[in-house]
User: Fold these one by one.
Assistant:
Number 1:
Amino acid sequence: MIRFLLDGAVIEITDAEPTGTVLDYLRYTLRRTGTKEGCAEGDCGACTVLLGELAGDIVQWRAVNACILFLPMLDGKALKTVESLGGTHPVQREMVARHGSQCGFCTPGFIMSLYGRSLGALGTEGVPVGDVIAGNLCRCTGYGPILVAGAAVPVAAEDDAATVEALRALRPAYGHPTTTDELADLLLAEPETRIVAGATDVGLWVTKQHRDLGATVFIGDIADLKRIEETPDALTLGAGVRYSEAREALARLHPDLGELVRRIGGVQVRNAGTIGGNIANGSPIGDMPPALIALGAELTLRRGADRRTIPLESFFLSYGKQDRAPGEFVESVRIPRPAPDALIRIVKLSKRFDSDISGVCGAFALRIADGIVTEARVAFGGMAGIPARAPGCEGALTGAAWNEANVEAAALALVDDYQPLDDLRGSAAYRRKVAANLLRRIWAGQHEPVSVLHG
C-alpha cells in the first residue's frame, strides 16, 4: 500500500505497480490532467509537481518531474499539482497579466516551478528565476514574460502547520528501508534487488526503454544516507544526498563544483538525483565523477556489516561495469578539501547551456611550487567508456616547469590517454581537441567559471 497527502486528503493506493509513474496516476486515475507529458524523461518540465516531506517542524517542498517519479516514492509525503493552486495564486495571476502563456501546454509546469520558488522550495533559495525554470521548456511563448511573472511574486513560506500535523500522523505503508542496516540486510538476502534513489536515470529505463526492473528497493527515506559532514580536511556526502542539498557544501569546497551542480539538469532533476546514484550508475558522461576523481575522492561501499573504501577512480572498471559485488551498495563519498594553493578548474562542455548532457567534462587539480608542478590530477568524462584520469597528461606535467612548452606537451599527451567515440554529442576529433584546449586555457589565464563555458 502507498499512502500520501494530496491537498490535505489522504490518498491510498492498494494495487500500484512499483514502477508506475506519478504522472500516469494523476492523469488517468485522478483525472488531474493539468500535469502534462511532454518528454517522459524529466527534460521539459511539463509534468512538474511539488513533493513535500517533513524536515523537523517544517515541510520541505521540492519541484520534481512526475513523469519519472515512481508511485512508491510518494509514500508518506505530500503532493501538490497545478490544480492545488485553484487558479488564484499570485503566480497564476502574474502569468495571465504578463501574457506568459500561448498554447498553454507547458504553462502548468512553469507555474509549479515558479510556485515552488515562491515558497522558497528546495533548490530555489537565492537562485535567479531563469535558473528556477531552466528545467521547463516553452516552444511558442518566449521566456521574457515568464521571467517577469516569476520575479513579480515575492518569496514567502506558506502556513504548513496543518500539513506538518497530517504528515506526522501519516504512517508510511510501502515498506521502504529506513536505515542503512535494513538496506544492507535486504540486499544481502536479495542481492539482485534494483536500488532506486532519485530515478532520474532509472525512470527512463521504464518510460523510454519499457524495461522491467524486477524487484526494487527505494532508498529515498534512509536518513543515514543523507549525511552531509564538513570538516577542515574533507566533505563527506551520503549516497542519498540530492544535488540540490549538496550544492552549497560543494561550492564551499570549491566554487567550480557549485557551478557544475548548477549545470546538472534542471531544478527538478537536482531535487531528485543523488550523489551516490550518479556514481553507482557508472555513466561515462555523468557530470560529477570526473570532478570528484580529480579531487581525489574516496568511495565507501557496504555489503552486510562489511565496509570498504576505495579511490573513486578505481570503482569504474569498464563501460557498464563497476567494482561492486552482489548485495553491495554505495554508502558515501569523501572528498578531500583542496589545498589553498591548489589550481582547480572544472569545465562542462555541452551543446546547450541549461539542462543538457555533457559532451566533455574536464577536471584539473594542480599543485605548483616554485614554478614546478608537484602534483597533477586530470580527469575527464565523455572521453572514454568510463570517467577516467589522464595518465599521459599527468605524467607530462608532474615534475615539469609550469610553462607553455610543457603545458603544450601535456595537452598533446591527451591524444593517447583516451579513445573517445563519435556520437551525437561530438566527434572523437572534437573531443580530443577541446580536451587539449581546456588545459591550454588554464595556462593562458582564461579562467572563466564553468557557468560560461559551453559548446
Note: Residues 446-455 have pLDDT under 50 and may be disordered.
Number 2:
Amino acid sequence: MTAPPSLPSSSPSSTIAWPTPARADAFAAWLAAVGGRHGLVAASLRPASSDASFRRYFRVDRSDGSLVVMDAPPPQEDVRPFVHVAGLIAVAGLHAPRVLEADVDHGFLLLDDLGNELYLDALKDAQARDDNARADALMRDAIVALVRWQGHVPGAALPPYDDALLRRELALFPEWCVARECGVAWSSAETAIWSAACDQLVASALAQPQLAVHRDWMPRNLMVTRPNPGILDFQDAVCGAIAYDVASLLRDAFISWDEEREIDWAVRYWQAARKSDLPVGDDFGEFWRSLEWSGLQRHLKVLGIFCRLKHRDAKPGYSADLPRFFAYAHKVASRYVALRPLGRLIEPLMGASRIEAFH
C-alpha cells in the first residue's frame, strides 16, 4: 500500500498525512492565511484527536495558549451544520468551541481549545477510585447544561428527528450487527418481530415532546472546563424526543453505572427540567419509560454503527463495547412486555454468558 502524501518537509505539518497533494496544499494555504490573523505558531501543529467519522483534529499554539483545527474532508463531511449549531449554542449561553475561522468549501475550521480533560476520563478515574462525590458533581453539571441546552437551543432551527431518520438508524442493526457481525439471517417471522419493535420504538420517540437533541450527549463529548462542561461533537443535533439525550448521558458507550445511580441522576434531571418548565410531565415513572425506550432505540443504532465501523471503515476498536450495548438493549427489552419478543430475538446474538455478565 502506498503511503498517503504529506506536506513538504519544510511545512509545519510535515508529519501529518493527507489523502491527496491537493488537499495538503489547500490546508497549507489556509493555515498560512488564518495563522497570521490569530498569531498561530505554525510549527507547533500536531495531531490532537480523531473520532468515528472522517473528521480529525489538530492542536496549534499561539502566544496565549492553543487553538484547535478541524479537518472535515468533503464530500464525506460537511462543516456547515457544525458552524450553525455552534452559533445556536453561543446564543444559548453554553460553553462550546467558537468557530474563529471557517473554510466550508474545503472543510477546515479554527476553533477554541477546550483542553484535554474528557468527562469520560474524569468519570472513569472517579469510578476507579470510588469517588462518588466527584462523579456526582460532574454528572450534575452535565444535567444542568443539558436542561439549558433543551430550554435555550431552538429545536425549530434544527432538522427533525422524524420517522424516516429514526428508521434509518434502526436499520443499521440488522444490516451491520445481525448480518455482518453475527452472520445471522433472520427468518420472515423474526423479521416481523423486528419490524413490530421498530414501530413501537419510533412511535414512542415521536410521541414525546420534541426539542433540541444533541444526539451524542455523552461523556466522550463533554469536556471538564470552566464553565463546566464544554460541549463537543454537536453537528448532528436535531429536534427530537426530550428523553434521548438523558439516555445518552446515563447509559454511555464507554462507561456504565448501576441502575440506582442512573435513576438518581434521571430524577435530578427530571426535577431540574420541571423547574425550567420543560415538558417532562408530572409522572417520573412515565418519563423513565420514555428514557429507556429512547435509550433502546439509540443502543440498537449504535450496535449497528460500531459494527459498520469495524467492517466498512476498518475501525475495529469500537466493537469491544458491543457487549455493553447488548446488555443495555436486552435489559430494557426484557423489562417491558411489549418489547420482550425483541429481547428474545437478540439473545442468540449476544450469548447467555454475556447476558449474565452485564446484568
Note: Strands lie at 40-50, 56-62, 65-71, 99-103, 108-112, 210-213, 222-223, 230-231, 238-241.
Number 3:
Amino acid sequence: MICEEEDICRCALNLCMRYEGGLARRLYDHYGSAAVVFRQPLTELVRHKGFRRSIAEKMLDPELVKMAQRELQWIEKRKIKLVFLYDQSYPLRLRECCDAPLLLYVAGTADLNRGPFLSVVGTRSATSYGKAVCKDLIGGLKNLGINPVIVSGLAFGIDITAHLAAMENNLTTIAVLPAGLDQIYPASHLNIARNITRQGAVITEFPSETPGNRHNFLQRNRIIAGLSDATLVIESKKDGGALITAHLACDYSRDVLAVPGRPGDVSSKGCNNLIKNNKAALVDSAADIARMMQWETTPDENTAWQQDLFTTLDNSEKLVYSQIKKQGGDVNSLAECLQIPFPVLSATLTKLQVKGLIECMENNEYRIIL
C-alpha cells in the first residue's frame, strides 16, 4: 500500500504522542500539517509547552515511519476507519475539547455527530438497583421518543449495562476503549463489542497492540466526557473512576447528571456528593433527563408508552400507581391506605419514579407524570 506523506506523518505523530493529545493538536494547529511538524528542527519544537526529551527521542526513532506504515496497513486490512481531527466525520463535540485526540480508530457504522449523545458511567461493582435504574432510564428515554446515542466504556457494571440496554432498545451505542482495537478490554466483552459495531461503534485513540493500563483509563475517560452533551452517573463510590469522567465533563462545560442513592449507601456516595456540591443535577427519571437537557419528546409515543408500560408493571407497581393517580398522598398515607409494608412501598415508589411515571413534590406527596 502506498500512503501519502501526510497520512503517514499523522499516524506517526499519534504514535509518539498517544498520551499528549493536547500537544499533538497544538503542534498540528501551529504548523498546519503533520508532515511540516516532522520537518522542524528540535530546537524549534522544544519551544512548545509540554514538549519533552522523551517525545523528541520518539520522533527521532528511525523505526517510527515504518511503524506508522504498518499501522496504516493494519487498519486498511481490517476495514477500520482512522478519523482525523479535522475530518468531517470527526465528532464535533469532542473537537471542541482542547485535548481532543489527533486520530480516532473507529470500528462500526455509527455517525459520531448525529443525535443527542449521553454518556452513562458508574461503578464496576454495580448493585442490582443500579443496573435496574440504568436499564429503566435508557428504556425510558427511548419510550419518550428521544433516541439518544449512549456512550460508555465497555467495563463491567454500569458501563456494560448501559450498552446492553441501548441495544435492547434499538439505540445506537458507542464503546470507548482504553486500549487498541485488537485488545478489547475486558476480553470477556469481546462478543458484545462485536455486536456494538453492528449497531454503533467501538472507538479508541490508541494504536494496535496497546494494552489497557491505568493511565489509558484516565485518557479514555476524557473521550467519554467529550463525546457527549451530558454525562449521567449511576452509582459511584466516593472516589470512583466515574467521578473523573464527571469532573472532565464539567471542565468541558458539559452537563453532569447523577442518580441519588440512600444516605450512607457506599455505592452512591460519589453521586450524592456530586449533587450535594452542585456538580451534578439530580435526576431520577427519564423525564428528568429530557427536561434538564431540553430534549424534545414525542407526545403520541408518550401516550402509547403509558398504555403499554402499565401492562408491564408488577402488581405492587400497578396498585401504587393507581392509588396515586386516584388521590395522591405521601409515603405514610399510601402505606396506611394500601396496607403495603414500608420497605416494599419505598422500593415500588423508587421504581415508578425511575420509570418516569410519578414524581415527589416539595410537600413530599406523590403525583403521576404520565
Note: The chain has three domains: 1-77, 117-293, 299-368.
